[in-house]
Amino acid sequence: MVLVLLLAVGIQGFAGLFNTDDVLFDGPLYDNAPDWATHLAGVVHARMFNILLALIALHVLVIALYYFWKRENLVRAMVTGRALLPLKGSGAKGNGEADFASPLRALIVAAIAAVPPIAIYVMN
């Protein structure tokens, strides 16, 4: 669900770059795109808003179901970054706490995520 939400927010943000509300705000790349592209971006941007609302509602519903039906507090795990795992299974240390990924992996992922915004900034 996290990947789906991130993809949906990414599509929404990308479409917003080429979109305008015809009143106050223009996306930073709105003037650089042809009319068909800005029209398409406007349609995608408007529809993705409703899709995002549905995905967020589904996400909250599933978290509530996990809390009330399975008695798993996923909100605490999302906030703290730590989840209690069963003693058997991959990634468990044996004390019920998850192993963390290496800081090098986090640095690589952050560098990859920084490429699109930097490229857009440099192109302007």
Shape: flat
Roughly what percent helix?
A: 55-70%
Largest sheet: none
Query: What gap, in angstroms, lies between the N and C termini?
Result: 33 Å
Kindly report the average pLDDT value.
80
Count of DSSP H/I helices: 4
Give, in order, the helices and strands: HHHH
Count of distinct strands: 0
Strand portion: under 5%
Structure explained in plain terms:
Helix content is 65%, strand content 0%. It is mainly α and 124 residues long. It has one domain. α1 packs antiparallel against α2. The chain is flat and about 50 Å long. The relative contact order is 0.09. The model has no long low-confidence stretch (mean pLDDT 80).
Tell me briefly what this model is.
The protein is mainly α and 124 residues long.
Task: Give short descriptive properties of this protein.
single chain, 124 residues
Helix-strand layout with pairing:
Layout: H1 2-17, H2 35-70, H3 74-80, H4 103-123
